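> @MW can you paste both from yesterday?
MW: sure, first one:
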Amino acid sequence: MDIEISKRLKEIYNLMYERSGSRNWWPADTKFEVIVGAILAQFVSWKNVESAIQNLIRENLLSIEGICNAETEKLEELIRSTRFYKQKARKLKEFCGYVKEKYNADLDSFFDKDIYELRKELLSLYGIGEETADSIILYAAEKPIFVVDAYTRRVFNRLGYFNEDITYGEMQKFFMENLEHDTKLFNDFHAQIDGVGNKYCNGKKPDCKECPLESICKKCGLNL
């Protein structure tokens, strides 16, 4: 751990936290709902995911057994709001079928392993990429792994820490090596970054004057 970088990361987190308080992310009532949300959230806004989840709840399908037993066409229609809904329906089916067959539909048994063993297993499943796998590990399994995404790349590029072409693994390593491995911290830090990236640090017209990181941002005031 680089003590100076660790100190700066804590400063960044505190600035965001002081502005918004805890983000209370991931919004879900069950571990399975977190997983469904993580799969459906790819390439779409959260409000579209919420709509799809409410459809599944209304049809009493928000469970491993429910997804497994649902007709594919019906499932596709219920999650249509999430874009690429045919592929996502297959991802849900494949995931639920796997956990049902190998773990008797018991998520606690599925999660009861080392973080990186669980990550490897998740990544072996159809349609589960790094961000989705890590979101499931952090927010559903409640194990300390740092989730990164496009917001992380943009915010920390503008803060002066990342190049624009940095890989997912390189970003994740930066946080994992310089922060205490604490599930609650990783959870809210990621949520704070996404909050800043969504509300202030957008791609073309960042709202630097209102951003909680304005005082330490290396690119504030520049023509972005």
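MW: second:
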Amino acid sequence: MSRYSLTKTRFKEGVWEGLISSEARDAPAPDVVVSLFDTPIRGASVAPVGESGQWLLEVPVPPEAIGDGVMTFLVADAVTEEVMGSFTMIGDDALAEDIRAEMALLRAELDMLKRAFRRHCLETS
């Protein structure tokens, strides 16, 4: 298990931000590598936050990572190579298929409820 934990704080204007925490207050600043498809993402930065044992991670999402499909970014400790966390971006086609599947499921459940309600009405009248 990693000596650091990662919690997402926000994603705004193309920059993903997370809070890295360590239980040990005197822990050194983590050396972080962020990768997409095993390729390191340049520009990720780690800066201390007011409280000791906490750092702000900022990851600028590169333009080539924006598009159709599912993009999963891994955040790892560069020293131990342990994964601290990840974040995922889903674009266009992959999302559309997911929404269509959810809508089909909702329609099927609604049809089932309508049949059960009609049967209930017939039996109680």
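> thanks! The chain has a mean pLDDT of 87.
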